[in-house]
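Practice set, problem 2.
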Amino acid sequence: MHKDTKRKTQAKWLRNFRKVHRITGAALFVFFFFIAISGLLLGWKKHSGGIILSKSYEGVSTNLKDWMPVDQLHIIANTYLLDSISADLSTEIDRIDIRKEKGMVKFIYTDHIWSLQLDGTTGEILHVERRYSDLIEQIHDGSILDDYLGTSNNQIKVFYTTVMGVALLVFTITGFWLWYGPKRMRRNKATA
């Protein structure tokens, strides 16, 4: 292949990569912005001074034999939620986080971001928090749209993470060639 033709082919590839890089970036700018900000916040959640994610408080005993039954702790948590926070909140549980080493049980609810930490032994409310980390995670992975639109099986989350993962791969490949391609062309020109 003639060196001029080879150079033109390389330049054409660079233009194509630049175009794909620019179009992908422009089309997905807002999504990348949200992923970047939410990713930074999630990375700092345990170091946010309790703003994004509260620390885990400690109960009286780490011995499970001393603990109240989980169903009683659940009743205490729900009663507190409805009486002290809002009677309009759902008591549907997303998960129960048992921290034996802390002597604490955390009740995390499905339909809102409230969470309660209870002493496993006494049932005392150790801490009430709004779990902003869960909200930020839902924004980060797109599942907030599944919740908002009521879709089943997280279809939006799967589509969103697939598109964003492929876009990041495209940016990585095209970005590398936008950096490396001109160097390669200059090197080829110098040896010509």
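Problem 2, part (b): a different protein.
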Amino acid sequence: MSDISYIDRSGEAQFGDFVALLKPRVMSLVVFTAFVGLVVAPMPVHPFVAFTAILFIALGGGASGALNMWYDADIDRLMRRTANRPIPAGRVSEGEALGFGLALAGISCVMLALASNIFAGAFLAFTIFFYVVVYTVWLKRRTPQNIVIGGAAGAFPPMIGWAVATGGISLESVAMFMIIFLWTPPHFWSLALFMKDDYSNAGVPMLTVTHGRRATRTQILIYALILAPVAVGAAFTSIGGPVYLAASLVLNALFIRGALRLWRRDEDVALAEKYSAEKRYFYFSLLYLFGHFSALLVEKGLGIFGMGGW
């Protein structure tokens, strides 16, 4: 722990520190999937409305990140991966992060409702509540199923984007939700595998801590097998088509193959290789999700020119 015991509290918070509170990498995923949900919806949206809606969805995602960092500041100090975040590093106070997060949450939800419709604004508010209260406060420190249930918060953005355009929910928006929902556990569990003792040191009951690495590898494989038919099945909804089907078949074959390789790995070999296969699987999982949602955009583009669909 000597590498994180010293905290420099000199100076005031910089603009970049508040940007870091928003978890910009996570926000980019929120923005992209929400954008896809909005674009592939059957109802056209004025470009200005679409831009403002995505902006406020992004701010809502950032609010969730800031409130998560505020509540988790104590355990962030104990993990090497998070020790340099603005609060544990002493660059932003917990009070500043709380106020910043609450302000962004209120602004984003109200403005999204005004810019699009009340249902979309309420859906964004529910998503922030789910991530902060249900996942961060309730589940994260209590159960190894934290990321399974809490992962729903990260799966809501395409449904919010769809709601901006349509004012409601449909089979297609639920299909996009299910892809992300089932993708989240193997994505984060592969991260937990190569983060070694971070979660154990912080007392977070991640599956790797409570059930061990072998059980975690098994669960990754199980979720990859469950995810595949759901992801491929979206090809046969109104937002799918042959391009999406081809992309999904390839991506899921590679995803399952990677999960099988992880499942077959010997723990001593994994440690000797510094968990290189686990890291590759984690990064491929990002490509997996990006590939599916990009294929949906391609199908929408082809449909505009009368070339998409079945």
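Answer key, part (b): Confidence is low (pLDDT under 50) at residues 1-10. The first helix runs from residue 15 to 21.
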